[in-house]
Amino acid sequence: MVLQVQTSAYEAKTQEIAKQLLAATQENRSFFSSLRDQMRWDDKLLAWAMSNPGLRVQLFRFIDTLPALHSKSEIASHLQEYLGDESVELPSALKGMLNFANPDSMPGQVAATTVGTAVETLAHKYISGENIKQVIKTVERLRKEKMAFTIDLLGEAVITEAEAQSYLERYLELMQQLVEASKNWTAIPAIDEADGEPIPKVQVSVKLTAFYSQFDPLDAKGSEERVSDRIRILLRRAKELGAAVHFDMEQYAYKDITLSILKKLLLEEEFRQRTDIGMTIQAYLRDSEQDTKDLISWLKERGYPLTIRLVKGAYWDQETIKAAQKHWPQPVYNDKAATDANFETITQLLLENHQYVYSAIGSHNVRSHSRAIAIAESLNVPRRRFELQVLYGMGDKVAKALVDKGYRVRVYCPYGELLPGMAYLIRRLLENTANSSFLRQNLENRPIEELLAPPVVKDAENFPPSSHPVVPLSSSFLGAADTDYAEEETRRKSAQAFQSVRQQLGKTYLPLINGEYVNTPEFVDSFNPSNFSEVVGKVGLISVEQAEQAMQTAKAAFPGWKKTPAKQRADILRKAGDLMELRRAELSAWIVLEVGKPVKEADGEVSEAIDFCRYYADEIERLDKGVNYDIPGETNRYIYQPRGIAVVISPWNFPLAIACGMTVAALVSGNCTLLKPAETSSVITAKLTEILIEAGFPKGVFQYVPGKGSQVGAYLVNHPDTHVIAFTGSQEVGCRIYAEAAILKPGQKHMKRVIAEMGGKNAIIVDESADLDQAVVGVVQSAFGYSGQKCSAASRVIVLQPIYDAFVQRLVEATKSLNIGEAELPSTQVGPVIDANARDRIREYIEKGKAEAEVALELPAPEQGYFIGPVIFSEVSPNAVISQEEIFGPVLAVIRVKDFQEALAVANGTNYALTGGLYSRTPSHIQQAQTEFEVGNLYINRNITGAIVGRQPFGGFKLSGVGSKAGGPDYLLQFLEPRAVTENIQRQGFAPIEGAD
Fold this sequence. Notes:
Blueprint: E1 2-4, H1 11-25, H2 31-37, H3 41-51, H4 53-65, H5 72-83, H6 92-97, H7 106-126, H8 132-144, E2 148-153, H9 161-182, H10 189-192, E3 193-194, E4 197-198, E5 203-206, H11 220-241, E6 244-247, H12 255-265, E7 277-282, H13 288-302, E8 306-311, H14 316-326, H15 336-352, E9 357-362, H16 366-378, E10 386-391, H17 396-404, E11 409-415, H18 422-433, H19 438-443, H20 448-452, E12 456-458, H21 488-502, E13 507-509, E14 512-513, E15 516-517, E16 522-528, E17 531-541, H22 544-563, H23 566-582, H24 584-595, H25 599-624, E18 627-628, E19 634-642, E20 645-650, H26 657-668, E21 672-677, H27 682-695, E22 702-704, H28 709-718, E23 724-728, H29 731-741, E24 753-757, E25 762-766, H30 772-784, E26 794-800, H31 804-816, H32 836-852, E27 854-858, E28 871-874, H33 881-884, E29 891-897, H34 900-907, E30 912-913, E31 915-919, H35 923-932, E32 937-940, E33 957-958, E34 961-962, E35 976-984
Parallel strand pairs: 2-5, 2-11, 5-6, 6-7, 7-8, 8-9, 9-10, 10-11, 13-17, 20-21, 20-23, 21-22, 23-24, 25-26, 25-31, 26-29, 28-29, 31-32
Antiparallel strand pairs: 1-12, 3-4, 14-15, 16-17, 18-19, 19-35, 24-34, 27-28, 30-33
Helix pairs in contact: 1-16, 1-17, 3-4, 3-7, 4-5, 5-7, 9-11, 11-12, 13-15, 15-16, 21-24, 22-28, 23-25, 23-27, 24-25, 25-26, 30-31
């Protein structure tokens, strides 16, 4: 059933006003025919994009790449690569233009010039100027047309503290110059005053996140302090100058913290009486109506009105994609009509509270504006308390018609260099060419009744935000959702978990053998690497005799476990996953405190452990069906059986996820399993043990056997009853296990299977077409996340000559802006390394690096833990020690290469092949990397860490490891023996025939 938005008392008036406005804006001729008559390429590109979805995608991707292209031949070759794609149907004019043999040829240069100029012209339509001088000209022209303005500064994403400071300074300069210029402007009563009250002539719009490069809801307090300091400077200066300041709204993740910071700040004595400040509400968000109600209540308490700008919202694609990838509820309405209906609801809410709030209604939809006017006129809303807004270059005719009718119209004018402004331009183009866009429908001369009809909302959109379903992905496996720390409740839970875990520090954890916790001759303390005076727990280490006892117990338990139906084994795994989900915040806290992993990354690790349980449970049920290869008169079954006893030797760097993944894979496949964790992370594996026992693994089937690797580990590897060894750790130990496992021991009646993941020397290539904002952020995360202690971490970045210097400069600034500190602090991005041995080994590599390369950055680090500040070396030779050997710490080598071919050769020039990355917007480079970059996991235009089960199965080749990828469809096969069973079912010449009566 379809619900009609309630037709209220305002509807008749809305229709009447809308028809008048529409008549003033509509041309007599069809948009497309008028475009065809014109020969302007910028208009043609837009018209083609509207009529051809395939071309639209490729064209916008090309426009996105344009800022990085510095010569005509580069532009020409990218034009051919993007638009020459077979999937794109080209209009004949464009086809003719792209038909050149060589990008350097005259036709290639002409094509580059034509399209380059067209895109520049397009950009000038939506961007109000490249510098302040041009902007002043634009706003003076707007004022002549009786339109007010607000200015927004476009530019690179703010990823360094230097950029955040520069953002503030550029706004202070912008306000200064605009106010200076405004002294010569003639007063225009329609926009400079209302109800006898002056309105500031100058208004700027700012983004909160741009005032602090490490803005993060998880660190709500730290973000608030840093941002508020800069905002106070801006607001004080605005007051001195007599300019107004408006705060834009950005991505959903920042919404709650943005509103919270502004509400707190604007209640401070200094700012409480200010009415020249505004905030923004986005109607496409499901919780925007509630946010508006909360803001109105807060404004009543504040006692002085502020402006609320109501917009539809500009990040729809981004929000839906992020929610789908994270398995989070969808924050936006899926249906445009639902957004339009919500927009009208909120418009009414704002205008009915006009004594507390100034409404600024931002839209290009004639119906939305008419609705606002109808309500404002019916309620006699004073002129000062109500204005209409449009974006520069969009809805110009609507704006003119509104001015002619006597309403105050403000134009939102972005300014800045055209090329960094491309991201903004593409958002505008997407909006302009979308099928559901009012502007497009109006240009296509849709019937007036259809254009002005009240929005009709589908049933599905009436769910409250919290109950809205998670958008399913195309893959059948749905992973666990990471914690969304943008929600205050999750931050509170995390803080509580730390309190509770801290009260349990220092306890003793014993091994589990034959279902009993047993005493041991030797104990080891596990320390908090952020503060090595703090003991996380004491762990009992088993002796070789106890290892033998555990082995005999496993041997005795195997026949019963082997016969346990796969479904039953899978259900125990699912229960373990559910228990981890219940204990998520607590498990994260243990990971943070025992191995020094920052909070968000620890939470992601818990998700991975849960995913392994659920994914391998599904996988064993799939494999348990076996395969039938029957023919008439004969059945042929292909089935799997468990191998026997598995020894799991797990690392400290993913103490829960990798230990859990290897262990539950062995268990669910029907093998009895002994888990020997790294000594530095044995408390977390003790917690995993509690969960596996509670989930229902029988006595002797799973045993927790912490011990010294050189004694107990070696004993178990060499034991004749061991069938499978699953190991993650260093190349040296992995190769030794591989060699020892190959030797047949007395009494051994089988060959051992070794699965070993042994690290990497992972490289990211950044080519000259890369988006540097994206590349710098991705490299910083990949290299310094968890202090470079992930097997997948980037330790080399290979940069092409033309952008090398610019890249290194921004990389250094972005890394300088990171917060180094105790892993538990929500502000921390770089925590400690695992222990003193690791710290000292990494320091040795840093000294080697200083002898063979230039130090671009060496950050200081706190003293009380095992800290090492990030180090970046530049001008590193591809054959240097720091380019070839795995360091496992926050040390990055930046290598300069002349072209893409050399970049691939350098990337492949080590003994490893685990993960690799490429930042590029050149389709041929992306294609080439997919086939020639020798890595198990290749990541394109994103960071190279954080593989997700069932999405990016993880593992490498060469000396990075042996065996199949964890979290992938082949992984369980390594713990199973395949068998084929054939039966002849013919008797005396007859056999059952399928389908016969």
